[in-house]
Design a protein that fits this description.
Quinone Oxidoreductase, Chain A, domain 1, seven-stranded mixed beta sheet, alpha/beta
């Protein structure tokens, strides 16, 4: 089978690999589509090693999100071949991941896909929405409290806005000045343009500061200054979390695949609480162009490798 890997930290490399076999508790998925995330770029340029998030290795598999069909199962699995699924490959050190024609995942990292949703769209929400959901689990905010979401037009940030509204929170969002209409459409109650001084702007509306922060843009202390004393801060992992000043409880968030939570997210997608956004689709053999598209920045929605497009 064909698969994308990173070996020389010079972008994705398409190789031929043996078809992986599922062990007990695992499933093999025939990949229909796989989202490309910033963490995939980080695996190809050495950023993961720079931040000490993973150890060096000869080959990094690429791809976290996947949508496809179960092709084969190991023992003790309650999913059957032919079932449309989504999944999240949360292990950084895998030599083969979801940017491939087939991928093997633990059954607990897989959920039945949203009904009647094309594979390209189904591959866009798993990792990012799961990160946002686990951030809210760490924050433990209650209905009526306030949350600040940075990077609100991006993958994790957009889902943090939508989930925040679903949880009954007052959502203050910050993003590029040109993203205000899109972010408000996601449900943001208040918008702070990136060009503004964040803490000053937030505290002009909420003098005591917000109750919680989902720092999807990894702004750090500058965003934490908008949080009230003894508030909570979810730091979406990219290096060392900021110092927990003023009694603020800082929680590093690194998504962990979990079927129960993936099932919850699927239900929210089916109920139109969570959106799916495809920015562009590319064939597997055009992955280098897809990765460069994402690296240019400013992408709204997910760049997707769509294996069902096939080769010309």
């Amino acid at each position: 089978m064909r698969a994308l890997v990173s070996r020389r930290l010079e972008g994705p490399e398409l190789i031929e690999a043996d078809l992986p076999e599922p062990a007990a508790g695992q499933v093999r998925i025939k990949v229909g589509a796989a989202g490309v995330n910033p963490v995939d770029l980080a695996a190809t340029d050495g950023t993961l090693l720079t931040y000490g998030i993973t150890a060096p290795r000869e080959q990094f598999g690429l791809g976290w999100d996947v949508a496809g069909t179960i092709d084969s199962v190991g023992a003790d699995v309650d999913l059957t071949p032919g079932t449309p699924v989504i999944g999240v490959a949360d292990l950084l050190g895998r030599s083969l991941k979801t940017h491939a024609e087939y991928v093997v995942l633990d059954a607990d990292a897989v959920a039945k896909a949203p009904r009647d949703l094309p594979a390209a769209e189904a591959s866009t929400f798993g990792l990012n929405a799961l990160t946002a959901l686990q951030a809210y689990d760490a924050l433990s905010l209650t209905k009526g409290q306030t949350v600040l979401v940075t990077g609100a037009a991006g993958g994790v940030g957009g889902y943090a806005v939508e989930l925040g509204k679903h949880l009954g929170l007052t959502v203050i969002a910050t993003a590029s000045d040109t993203d205000e209409s899109d972010v408000r459409a996601m449900g943001a109650d208040h918008f702070v343009p990136r060009s503004a001084d964040l803490a000053t702007a937030v505290r002009a509306e909420f003098p005591q500061g917000v109750d919680g922060l989902v720092d999807a843009a990894v702004i750090g202390v500058a965003a934490q200054e908008a949080v009230r004393t003894n508030g909570v801060h979810a730091h979406v992992v990219a290096g060392t979390p900021p110092t927990p000043l003023r009694g603020i409880d800082v929680h590093p968030i690194f998504a962990a695949a979990n079927r129960k939570q993936l099932d919850q997210l699927v239900a929210l997608v089916e109920a139109n609480v969570l959106s799916t956004r495809v920015a562009a689709t590319y064939r597997l053999e055009d992955a280098d162009t897809a990765y460069k598209h994402l690296a240019q920045g400013g992408v709204r929605g997910r760049v997707v490798l769509h294996l069902e497009l096939g080769s010309e």
